[in-house]
Amino acid sequence: IPPPHNLDRSKRPGERPLLVFFEQGECHACDVLHTQPVQDSGVRELFYRFDAVQLDMRADTPVITPDGRRTTARRWAEELGLFYAPSLLFFDEGGREIIRVDSVVRFFRLRNVLNYVLSKGYLDEPDYQRWRAGGAP
To answer: Which of 20, 21, 75, 123 is deepest in the core (most CB within 10 A)?
Structure first.
């Protein structure tokens, strides 16, 4: 989605879940994300099933958040308490945050997180770790 980023889902739900990549320039972990997990064909196929936007968490790029507020990428990242890049935030079609992944160490589980969101596993089990322990796909 090109700027200005209108991610508002407060008045009308989206057709697909939303994935927001918070990144920053000169970020080794961001480079690792884009050269490893994102290059996996299975992961890429799952990404295509999301509405996605990539934001620079240090930039003053205008954003309308999923709950309809006007802000900037920088202010939103601060409000969310983000301090690590990359951070991936997943929202449902109505704009409610489902889960976030904010550690390159944990990207081995990226495919599972994508499946958790796409399968709506969070509706039956709001705790991702319990969902995984329950034999999720």
So the answer is: 20
